[in-house]
């Protein structure tokens, strides 16, 4: 692995502070040939979003397995204080979420720089400003493209699914607060794929995969 970002024509020079991850580790160049990919091949962050119970983890695992990409489960990156709060039924504040979101972006880039062709990441990303944190990824790694797969279903469906789920700190009592602050992606957010998840797991997974493949095809056409 190389240790610094080369200041070549397709890399904006980054300031010394911007060229480091939050923990001080350097951001490294992802333009290796580890996957035998040409230099111009994009790396994707597929961010599976939506409120608790919409099926982010379920769909992300399927997509990651099918596309042979690493899977980053956003829930695993919360500080203990956030998990304790949510387990008590207290919704997180914006302040609780910023470092978590930045960390998810950086972990995704780190995986790509370590040789992954892309990553599949789960994160509710309920507000536009949260999605914008992840959208900054190409600033740090110029060949990265961020896509959101927004999973949605009526609140009562989410409540029922979270209620039936076992062994998770997030209780069904948290769904309402999530739906209240949810800012569904608007038409101007052109990097979003939307999937209605009211259908069965198999149907939802198939639709998400088909839409992801269409997005990749569109990219190839655009780049050719
Ligand atoms: N399309 C679906 N139909 C029925 N149940 C589902 C569907 N997708 C997910 N589930 C179930 O709903 C619960 C919540 O799904 P999960 O993937 O944990 O959602 P999230 O990660 O968004 O909170 C899980 O028990 C899961 O098995
Ligand atoms: O799987 C779930 O039940 C949710 O996705 C859950 O994990 C939670 O939503 C976030 O991790 C907390 O963050 P937010 O309050 O920003 O959704």
From TrEMBL:
This is Gluconokinase. Its EC number is 2.7.1.12. It is an enzyme of class 2 (transferase). The keyword Kinase applies. GO terms for molecular function: ATP binding; gluconokinase activity. It catalyses: D-gluconate + ATP = 6-phospho-D-gluconate + ADP + H(+). Pathway: Carbohydrate acid metabolism; D-gluconate degradation. InterPro entries: P-loop_NTPase, Therm_gnt_kin. It comes from Hyaloscypha hepaticicola. Keywords: ATP-binding, Kinase, Nucleotide-binding, Transferase. Residues 29-38 have a biased composition (Polar residues). GO terms for cellular component: cytoplasm. Residues 1-38 are annotated as: Disordered. GO terms for biological process: carbohydrate metabolic process. Belongs to the gluconokinase GntK/GntV family.
């Amino acid at each position: 692995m190389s240790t610094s970002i080369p200041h070549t024509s397709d890399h904006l020079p980054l300031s010394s502070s911007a060229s480091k991850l939050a923990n001080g580790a350097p951001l490294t160049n992802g333009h290796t040939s580890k996957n035998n990919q040409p230099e111009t091949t994009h790396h994707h962050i597929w961010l599976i979003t939506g409120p608790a119970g919409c099926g982010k983890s379920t769909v992300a695992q399927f997509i990651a397995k099918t596309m042979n990409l690493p899977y980053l489960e956003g829930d695993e990156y919360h500080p203990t204080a956030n998990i304790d709060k949510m387990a008590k039924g207290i919704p997180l504040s914006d302040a609780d979420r910023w470092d978590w979101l930045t960390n998810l972006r950086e972990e995704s880039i780190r995986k790509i720089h370590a040789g992954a062709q892309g990553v599949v990441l789960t994160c509710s990303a309920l507000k536009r400003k949260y999605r914008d944190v992840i959208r900054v990824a190409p600033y740090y790694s110029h060949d990265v493209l961020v896509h959101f797969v927004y999973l949605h279903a009526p609140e009562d469906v989410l409540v029922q699914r979270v209620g039936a789920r076992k062994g998770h700190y997030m209780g069904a009592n948290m769904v309402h607060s999530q739906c209240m602050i949810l800012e569904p992606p608007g038409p101007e957010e052109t990097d979003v794929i939307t999937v209605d998840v009211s259908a069965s797991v198999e149907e939802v997974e198939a639709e998400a995969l088909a839409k992801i493949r269409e997005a990749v095809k569109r990219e190839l056409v655009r780049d050719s």
